[in-house]
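Task: sequence in, structure out. Protein: DUF2163 domain-containing protein.
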Amino acid sequence: MTETIARAWAVQRRDGLVLGFTDHDQALSFDGIAFRPDSGLSARALVQGLGLSVDNSEAAGALSDAAITERDLMAGRWDAADVRLWEVDWADPANRRLIFRGHLGEVARSGAAFRAELRGLSEPLNKAQGRVYHPRCSAALGDGQCRFDLSRPGYSAEGAVVLEDGSRLMLSGVTGHDAGWFEHGQLLVLTGAARGLSGLVKADAALPGARREVELWTALGIRPAVGDRVRLLAGCDKRGETCRMKFLNYPNFRGFPHLPPEDWLIAPKVNR
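Result:
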């Protein structure tokens, strides 16, 4: 049987798109997935640890318009995609063994090729567990701990791109919000080639004529075009005062604003 063993990969993006790849010289098909031999995807030797150690490997391949495109990689559409890897008997695909399941980690691109880190199911065990005691809030705005509804009037706005310069965008049609209202918030692209992408807002300025200048911390992988529609979501700087005055949500504040500062903790104590 070892003479008929091949590897087959299934990669599923968060938007539901599933692609199949194989290192065999002919196409394979099982589980409703067609595994193509001409998609330019290969993998390094898989490293799998015993117990709770983290599996790790890499997948490498060539950019292809029919499979994994440069635009999709730049847009982050393959980030955290689900990955399954089988050893399969190409003469009888029903005879197969699942040897890896996880997701794509960091994706790097170089010229016409890419390299993606594979992270196993035990990878989240490396993350710190428990709460962090800090004066600022530990929740993300609008999540299950914060419980704030961002669809409430006044906490979002839509506009159109009138000028784009990397991480800076000029928007029209955004009115009724103070300068800085969207700092620390998000910009979501609603239409155009960059639809579905989002960025974190670094700076937000209100300009005359119902215009808004927004600067993102990092430029989007696909640049919005003039006329594309975007939505801005209000930002939170995690301070208790902001939670109380801007969002009227202080009962759900997840920080500890009355903790002594670090200089108080390390200051020498004077005997009295």
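The domain at 2-126 is CATH 2.30.110 (Pnp Oxidase; Chain A).
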